[in-house]
Amino acid sequence: MQGIPANIKLLSFAKKGLIFSQTYSVKDFPRISEIVTNSGDKVSVELNFYIENNRIPCIEGQVKLEVALDCQRCLNEVKLQLNLVFKLAFIIHENQAEELDPSFETILNADEEFSTIEFITDEVLITIPMIPMHSHECQSYKDIIPVIEQERVNPFAVLEQLKNSNRSQ
Fold first, then answer.
1. Strand (E) positions, 26-76?
2. Strand positions, DSSP E, the chain
């Protein structure tokens, strides 16, 4: 295993059956580091390239990292351990997907070369919950602020008084 190049040369890597492994820092992934608070933490990445059915380039991979996000219930930090495992087949025509084992996620892509950082970023971002929350029932920020009950004044009370005074006359 060796470090992952900056750009993935899909067909070339798949034909050679290359396997890469590298440890990154969260800050190496700009789109991820702008939404998390732990940009100094490590990201472990393993990528295995191969050809399926004699012509379809594939990537099997694993990405491990911890992300620290703001809990959408209490607004405190929540840490999520992510362990992504993926099996991707890069097809040129949709009918190629019919030839593949259903365990593959198919990606319609004719690009021979693409950014490793962007590829890994996309895989991570689709696994981060849209509304991150603690697994336990944390206290909502609304629960912290005391609710002050106010007597509700009926805006038509004056009219009611006028109506009643007219009846008594």
1. 42-52, 56-70
2. 7-9, 19-25, 42-52, 56-70, 77-91, 105-108, 113-115
